[in-house]
Amino acid sequence: MARATNHWTREARRRLPALRAWRADFHREPELSNRETRTREKVVRALASLGIPAQTFGNKFNGVVGLIESERAGPVVALRADMDALPILEETHVPFASRFDGTMHACGHDVHMACLLGAADVLMHNRGRLRGSVKLIFQPAEEEGNRGGALPLLERGVFEKPRVNFVLGQHVASEVPLGSVGWKKGALMASPDHFVIRVHGTPGHASTPHQGPDAVLTAAEIVTGLQAMVSRVRNPVDPVVVTVGTIHGGTRHNIIPQEVVLEGTVRTVDPKTKQRTEAWIRRRVRLLASSMGASASISYKHGYPVLVNDPAATQRVVDALGVELGKDRLVELKHPGMGAEDFARYLERVPGTFLRLGVRTPTMTASSHSATFLPAETALVIGTATLVAGTLALQGEGRG
User: Fold this and answer.
1) What is the pTM of this model?
2) Active-site pick, 304, 324, 341, 346
3) Using one digit for the tens of pLDDT, what is the confidence trace for 35-69?
4) Catalytic residue among 259, 278, 377, 397
5) Is 346 among the catalytic positions?
6) Is 300 a residue of the active site?
């Protein structure tokens, strides 16, 4: 097996002090979706220190776009990092732990931003190798889950002037070993829908449940019925997840409430299945409530689209990473994950690929969205090198 070149990895490792400082600064002051004002200003200052002009969008939207211009005309590659944090009370106890109680970079977005700044630094110092310009997209509100931050950026023309030809992104992944990169052609991540079901019954005393339909019992039947639908209605080889995450109802142990509210999510990786699942849920909720003598209403909102990696663009990036990192550091993912990402909206516009940046270690016990999640510094180096090698590959370096 040919040895890995590790050229961009060495370039990234030389920048580890800066990568470490950027990551710690972002991590120390996390901000929730659509509140990333401090983070925005940090990104603008960091880009300025690298000699890269930054575009912002006023105080009502916290995105930042940097541009590395090339002297040669060629494909424009957009690189994206997300900026927002999560409402989680941090328990890592590291020196740079969040100073904002109840807010934490528990999904690795601090790592993503540091890697993008590191890649920007490397690319700025190697502009002679660029065959086109590079856009650096720092996106707010990825965790928001509904409109998100990608769509507003696209509406503001982030893929124009100059027009973007390819897009590349990555996300830390606790299922991929540290130092490795996961990849997959086609569908990689699911489309997440959100539903709220309101079950209406007859309020009364707990001692006389026979006097009217019980909203609590009906809600329980609906929860069970939705899971039966997943296991018995859809094709077993077509992945679907229906999860009820919250149940709210009642004020006292001996009072039957008039209303119980269920809230949950639906995850699918096929557009037709997405439509069928919504129809099934609406019908089943209505029939189950009716069978109990109650009634139910449902609010159903569509989330991000399925994230689909372009096969040709993915192969170009994977080939380049095989040379840079070594083929043994590449992990082909066999099945799509049921998580979601609004990077999918970029991939609807231009070809590109979304990679999984490995952070799993033998002793890791925490996954993303947990209070102790803290990727190792190796991910900063590999993530930076991955963005640089992927950019050059998408611009055609080494292809004649």
Assistant:
1) 0.94
2) 304
3) 999 999 999 999 999 999 999 999 899 999 999 99
4) 377
5) no
6) no
